[in-house]
Write a structure and sequence with these properties.
With 130 residues, the protein is an alpha/beta fold. It is built from 5 helices and 5 strands, in the order βαβααβαββα. The protein has a 3-stranded parallel beta sheet with strand order 1-2-3. It has a two-stranded parallel sheet with strand order 4-5.
């Protein structure tokens, strides 16, 4: 299982999902709800939770997608879906260690030089053609 927002889905997200899938026989993805993103980051995602879930669900290596409704439910979700392994990018190193007692926690190297934040900044700085 892996957790994420997957807003403006990009190659870093795809690589993370592919490498996660390679660690098991099924990949379940928990996508943060719009409200959860709002409370965590202080702004709504650009793509709605339904759109983000539809995109992630369409990825070949993804078997199941569900929404992360609220904070503090990760343990419940991991148990409910009988996860053996949880993966996160290495920007989350140590942050999921609390689940070591129920799953193997694997931090995967982030794909360099790409993030939703950078894409937004790049688009913002585009100048209209003269
Ligand atoms: N990722 C990556 N390489 C990038 C960008 C992202 O490997 N260049 C990974 C992140 O490390 C994360 C996953 O892709 O494991 C999803 O990234 P985000 O949508 O940015 O996830 P985030 O909003 O940080 O939500 O409680 C944890 C949250 O649900 C994670």
């Amino acid at each position: 299982m892996t957790f994420g927002t997957f807003d403006l889905f990009h190659i870093g997200h795809l690589r993370l999902l592919e490498r996660s899938a390679a660690l098991g026989d099924r990949l379940v993805v928990c996508v943060s709800s719009d409200q959860l993103v709002l409370s965590r980051k202080g702004r709504l995602p650009l793509f709605s939770e339904q759109q983000r879930m539809d995109i992630v669900r369409s990825i070949r290596c993804v078997d199941k997608v569900f929404v992360e409704e609220a904070k503090g439910l990760k343990r419940h979700y991991l148990l409910e879906h009988r996860a053996d392994v949880v993966t996160m990018g290495d920007d989350y190193t140590n942050k999921f260690d609390e689940f070591n007692d129920i799953v193997e926690v694997v931090y995967l190297k982030r794909t360099p030089d790409i993030s939703t934040t950078d894409i937004v900044a790049q688009i913002r700085s585009l100048k209209p053609a003269p």
